[in-house]
What we know:
Structural class: mainly alpha
Oligomer: single chain
Largest sheet: none
CATH class: Mainly Alpha
Strand content: under 5%
Amino acid sequence: MATDRATVTYARRLAAEAVGTALLLATVIGSGIMGEKLASGNVAIALLANPLATGAALVALILTFGPISGAHFNPAVSLADAWQRGLPWRECLGYIAVQFLGAFIGVGAANFMFEKPLFFASHHARHGSAQLLSEFIATFGLLSVIWGCVRLRSTAVPFAVGAYITAAYWFSASTAFANPAVTVAS
């Protein structure tokens, strides 16, 4: 049964954004941990596991939460949607706040599942102009994929986003967070 986003309460949309973002981050972090565990030091195999899980989860999460909240799970997507007048500006800050909250919950949950401290500084140094450029290109590409598909074939959005993020892990120096909530929480 399809849900008309306009008829869903703001609180329910915020809850969907928080839960969806938490599940996305649990996938990103959990599959990274599991990939490293199972790869026995083979970084390429670990890097392969992480985007495959993330891309698949994105498809499932967007299909699940898209009818409720739009399935942004990303402050950049929410800002772009507000700019395009798809999300009212008065709701945008709430979306962004729960996306960051959900991101931290997802990171904590993944770390807890793998018996790691709930929160700790990343062991992967990501800084400098190359990382910034990578994130800009990955985010620009993500927004391009979303808006291109929304305009031409909206049913393809979940699959296109999952495929793009899977690929972006490999073509960007930053492993393509393309999401400020992921960058901050992880």
